[in-house]
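This part of the workshop introduces the protein records we will be handling. Getting from the letters to the tokens is the skill we practise here. An example says more than a description, so a record of this kind follows:
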Amino acid sequence: MDAIQRIISICIDRKDRSNAIKYLRQTLPGTPLAAICQQDLPSASETWNRIAELRETEDAETIAREVELRRKRLGSDPLAVIRIKVEREVVLASDIDSIYVQLLDAETDSARIADVRVKLLAVLSKKLGHLPADEKDAARSSIDDLAQKLADAGVADPLPYEILIDAEDVAIPDRNQQLISAARATKKPAQPSASAAAMDQNASDDDLSAIAKFARAFFKWQDGQDANDAVQDISEGLDDSPSSIFGYHLLSRIYLDSAEWSAAVAAAEKAKELAASSTDTTGRAYDNVLLDLDFTLGEAYVNLGHRCTPQALATYRSILQSDSSNIRALHGLGLTLISIPRLDEAARCFEKIVRLDAAYQPALVELAWVSFLRGEYSQALEQLLDAQNLGATFLIKYRLARTYWMLGDNYCHDTSFVQAHLIDAARLNPRFAPTFTLLGQYYNEVEGDRVRAAKCFTKAISIDSINEDAIKSLAFLWLESNDVERALALLQNAVGSMPRAGWAWKQLGIISLHLEKPVDAITQFQTALRIDAKDCILWTSLGEAYAIEGKYMAAIKALDRALELESAAIFPKYLKATVYHKLSLFPDAIASYTTCLEELEQTDAAQANPKTLVPALKGLAETLYQYAKWQYEDGGYGGCATRLLEAIRTCHRAMSIAPDLVCITKILGDSCLALASLVPDLLSASHVEAIADLMAAVDPISGASSAFEPPTLQDDDGALPAVGSVAPLEHILCGSAWSYHRAIMLVVGSPDKDRSSLVDLFAHDLGVAYFHSHKLAAANHESGKSMRLLSLAIKFVKIAIRIQPSKQLYWNALGVYTSAVDPKICQHALIKAAEVDAQNPRVWCNLGYFYLLQDDLDLAGQCFTRAQFVDPDWSLAWFGQAYVARLTGSIGLTCRMLASAVQPEILYAFGLECYLQPHRSPLTLTQASHTLLKCVERHSADPAAFNLYGLVLERLGQYEDAINAFAGAIRFIESSHETDLSSTEKTRCLAYTLENKARAECAAGFFTEAVATFAQCVDLGHADAYTYVGQGMASYFVGDLAESLHAFEKALGVCETLSLDDAANRRLKNDTTLLLSQVLYALGTAEHVDLAKQQLLQCIATDVQYVPAIISLCALGLVLGDWTLAQTAAAELIKLEPEVLGALDAEADWVLSSLFVLQGQTKTARGFLAKAVHRYPWKAARWSKLAELMYCHSPTSSAVAASVAVSGLSIFAASRPDPLNPVTTAQVSDMQRIGGLAMLSDSEPRRLRAGRSALCRAIRSSPSSMSNWLALGLHEAASAITHEPPAPLTCLDHAAVLTRVADAALALAGDAHTAEAAGWAHLLKAESLLQQGIALKPAAEQDSAAYLGQAVQVADSVINLVSNAAIKQAGYVQLGRALHESGDLATASQALRMATEIENAPTWTLPLQELARVYSASSQTADAMLCYEAALSLVDATPKAKLPILLRLAHGLMEALDDASASEHINAALQLEPSNAGARLMQTLLMVRSGGGTGKDKNKIAKNMALLGESDDAGYGVEPVLVEWLRAQIPAAKG
């Protein structure tokens, strides 16, 4: 036995509990070991206890170990899932339950038996969830029996009670109260065991078990104790037992009875979830529990409102699907349908209940309520009275009161009906809040007792804190009593407990708007809109809050949304108009106000009370006034006058409804004053009539104060003149003064302090109106009237100062008004204004101008400086400062700040100063043009401004606009009636302006109009030399050379009367003489040409350094072929220094280069242009001239010419733009064309592609230039003929491109180009046809012949129609080539011979080379060789020109077997270009044909073959197949 015990100890120490249990089982009674050692064996109960302890420990450690191992595996399940799986495996595999059974059989102690049974119950309960479904019933029965035994025994462990109570399938009221009562004494399992008799009934809550707390809560609920205590007990119990079905079931019922609907729903759903889980685990059925929970859910859903109505319907209908006669479910469904409301269906539900149980009173009550909701109050009353016969309830009493309330005043005022039933209902159920709500409404509306009503509402809210009717009624009651703070607090509490109460958020927002808290209002309205997004009033209120906060775009969006919901709503449109006004979107505001007024007029309210239109009329008038000022600032002066007229008419309409409205009167006065001060020139009879009608229609103010003199336009006899008898401006000013005077009368003596405080403002405005009237009278030389009006202006501004002496505006006005009559008062007033507001620049400027009038320049300068310091952008300050500087002679008027002024004097002075600056920039002139445009637009009757504006535009090159400006000046001069100008002075001004206009017309190309304008100027008798020069130039360009000659002669005659000691007079005479010589030359006769020469010589005699005359003489010699004259003039030009040449140095160099080019001295000519480039390398035009000369007259320097052109283009791109001398696209295009043509003469493929790109860029720069298209066509023709390998296009592609280019050139060959240009374009077309014929020759013979025939026809037409020798020669060459390709060699040779015989044609080798090709094709080798030799004699020694002819000549000699001569020409070609592949190939062929010759020849053959093999790598060598063929012909190379 000792050995067994030691083995067991060892197994336990090693944690080998399974073997320990096995050995312990061997010690039990009845085993062989027990038979041997009976005296040493422990009792069976002790052994089974040890076995149970070991098995419990083993199972627990196995679970812990397996969970830890499995959770560390890759891809393992979540920990909770692993734990469930492990527990299931261990529980099913464990034999602990059988051990407990054996232990029970062996145990004799009752207490220990109870503990073991509890343990067995726990093991069986845990094991039940893992058993198969077919074994669950038996296991569950065993568990229930065991639990019942333990409960009957009164054990303290809560487990049996939990199992038995949770197993009950009954509603909460039907629970086993005896069992629940027994469970109240159970303690937590951790407490020591005790019998039920020994349990302490007063144990602390911490010691009580969860089921005990549930039981205590159950009896508290049953006894009607505080629900919060019961909920607290259940919550503590659920913390210990979170899966208790009974706990959540009871909690849902308590929440339901406490009207905690959301909490009841949550608890019931949790209980249903636990019941379903228990059914799956244990197999128990909970039908009755689930039914009771469904009733709980249904009732809670109904009370939660519309958002839970679908859930309530689904709940009740699911119950009725199982039991269609369930009265409780039918009742709940009926209540749900009433809340929707679907009254007919609800009535059917209640009627079914009545059929099932006629005495079921709730159904009868709800049927009556359905009738009430239908509006059938009499029937509802009868049904309620019938239901009352079964017994009076609080609900019947309440609904009877509601019904009597709806039946009318007779029942309401009789206390035996509404009031009596409500009191009975309150007595029967003092916790029913609607009773007190209705009772409060009764006291408020019937008895007028607000105190008792407030108490009733407060009572209802204390019962039900979310009773919306009570909260709403109490809030509005307090708001009506002006108790905003209490109403606000009530609503804030309401939204705290009812966050979905949209009406409460809405009312809070309205209160916040009233309290001027727009930010809070925005938040509250937004919250309300989240609840109900289709409330038009909410969107309107939100828009108003946004507008008050300054979030105008958000306000517009909110108001738009309101109008989407209710398009007929007027207030959102009014608010939207006000927002548009604040955003300065005046057209939109006007449209919105107009729409608002149109719709308001159609409403009954407006027809009954027209004053409802006044706010919209006031807003419209104010908007029109503001829009007029905005249009004036933007230059829309006509629109300004129109808007002001509309504003006056709108004010008339408003004053006809509300004549005593001060704001409308103020707008009327401002509109009239704006008309008089802003657009006086645009006043019309409509404005006058509008004012007159308004003043006549509005009744005078009765009992007006006599302290203010009313404005009048009366004559001396006291009669008011008729409209039209005085100036319109005077009428408008009278209307302004009348408006301000009326406004004063309206506010004087007003009890409203806000209105009476406006007297000073209107007095000042009235003074302004009188001051403008004073200036008008002074302008009309009405001195008496003027002084009377000025005294009135001073009087009223003094009144304003007496009322409000702290406003600088009034002091400043007094200073301005008295500046001309009382300098002391003026100075005092302006100084006082500066003391009141030292930060106002206007005051300092007025004070500065006052000191200017007093000739105190020092003080004036200090005032203007102070104004500049206060506001650096104030234009009047800068003008005053500049004027002071001008008077002191220090600086000129150069400040840019003056450009932003509005005064005409400042605008004109600034424009004149900019124009007179000696170094004016284009930016300065542009700014001056904008300033003068503003000047002439705002003051359109000033001819001097128009004339200066035209001069500035002429400087800017805007000639047509300048012509219009001069025309405006002429128009106003001719229509002017100024008394200050004499007729002579007026004529002189008109003559100057006409001359300016004629000059601008010449610059714009309107020469016919310029001739007529110059004639008008001459007729006025104020013409000078410049006038006659302009007239002569205009006549010259219209082709009237005789008149032009006559005008220049008159100009020269005027110049003869001038003193030549003055350089300007001397230059004028020379310029006139030069122009006269040009006209003489244009007349064309020999006599006139000789006279032109004499005039030029006379210029030089007057001034030997007069460069234009010298250049003209040299050009005249070149044109006439008078080389002596040209060379003499050129010699004089060469002597002149660059400083003398000045801006004409480039023209001088160009004339000199042309002279030397004609003499064949190209290098010398290039030197002159190169000097021009070196002298001014930043002038790109000079690079262009040099590149053109090099390309046209030095073809061998084409690469250099291309580089020069590229340099010129880079200078164009890098140079700063000059608005007064811009680089034209034609100049850029010419440079690109020259560069492209220069690159064309290079044989390198890369340069060829670059040349083509340059020509394409030239076309993009100037697509209307035929020269560009012809140059590109020349490039494409060269590409098609040479078939260069690098070209990306085939021969047919080149021909197609050439055709399109030729068509484009022909499209431009119209009136804008000469006949020569058209001839070259047709030749390009012929070349394209020829190339297409050649390309199609191998594949389509017939099509090829057609193209070649067309080419022959086009070339022949060019020869017959054009007289130019170069074009005719090119035409013959084209014709010969076309005939050659057509096979007509005889005619082709004849045409080519004609090309070589044309007189005055350029020296060109192409006709000879083409003729040689024709002779070679005709086997006339000797003639072909003669042609090539003749071509060689015509070219210079440059390789590019001579090399092709030498090779063609050698090729012909080889064909004629004249190897010696061929070798001579090949060697000559190799001397020109040693690396030429063609020459190497022909030399090798010649050596191979001669048999290889000497060893020296063999070495040369090998060298040539090596060079030929490498030549193709360059892209333009010999074809590899030809090289291989040649290699095969060399016997020595075959090894």
User: Anything to note?
Assistant: The chain has a mean pLDDT of 81. DSSP finds 79 helices and no strands in the chain. The radius of gyration is 59 Å.
